[in-house]
Amino acid sequence: MRIGEAALYLCTPDREDLAGFIEACVRGGVDVVQLREKRLGREELLERARLAAAVCADLGVPFVLNDDPAGALECGADGAHVGQDDLPPQRAREILGPGRLLGRSTHALPELERALDEPVDYVSVGPVVPTPTKPGRPGTGLSYVAAAARLLEERGSRLPFFVTGNARPDTVGGIVAAGASRVVAVRYLTEAPDPAEAARALRGALEDAIAART
After folding, report:
1. pLDDT (tens digit, 9 = 90+) per residue, 40-92?
2. What is the DSSP letter of 163?
């Protein structure tokens, strides 16, 4: 799958049922998976990342490792994702080579403008609201989503962007109305008692909102 064809991006920490959880989410409609885990040592993280990479390969969806391009190579990931305080995208691309995905977090227009000149395949935009996964980072609001959509259109860019921050069936309508068509889900799926059904509901709401906009 090309990253531009993806719509629902799961970002998950490690968990005991990681393989089953990923499979359930993909069955429900997730089409990109990122492992973002700050609590593990590197070798343990790579072991868990290898598991996630294998599951995603079997399911036919891309798997991305957060923060660690070299680790992404070691575990067989399809790519890596870097934040503003991580390895510069140019260096990350040198490590990954041309054939793997590289994502970039952005939280304001100047960062997005720089990303247009960086060797990245997609960006994230947000978080729309403050989130426990990024303590201390304020929410950008939907105004940044709208500004990002306008900027990319004005530049004639087809760089895919995924909106982060509180993506739920009852919030994606506003996200789509602001100009987006792709979201990153974290807590709505990681805290769901039935991840497959939650992913199905979120994917359905996203597709309904896109259809209504067009």
Report:
1. 999 999 999 999 999 999 999 999 999 999 999 999 999 999 999 999 999 99
2. E
Distance CA(148)–CA(135), nearest Å, equals 23
Q: Does domain 3-213 have CATH number 3.40.1130.10?
A: no
* Residue 32 and residue 62 in contact, taking contact as beta carbons nearer than 8 Å: yes
Mention every residue, 6+ apart, whose C-beta is less than 8 A from residue 158: 4, 152
Count of beta carbons in the 10 Å neighbourhood of residue 111: 17
Element housing 27 (H / E): helix 18-28
Bridge partners (DSSP) listed for residue 102: 80
What lies within 8 Å, CB to CB, of 148 at 6+ separation is: 106, 109, 112, 125, 161, 179, 180
Residue with tokens 């900027």: 151
Find how far residue 187's CA is from the centre of its chain: 13
Domain locations in the chain as residue ranges: 3-213
Sign of CA dihedral 18, 101, 133, 203: negative
User: What percent helix, strand, coil does the chain show, rounded to 5?
Assistant: 45, 15, 40
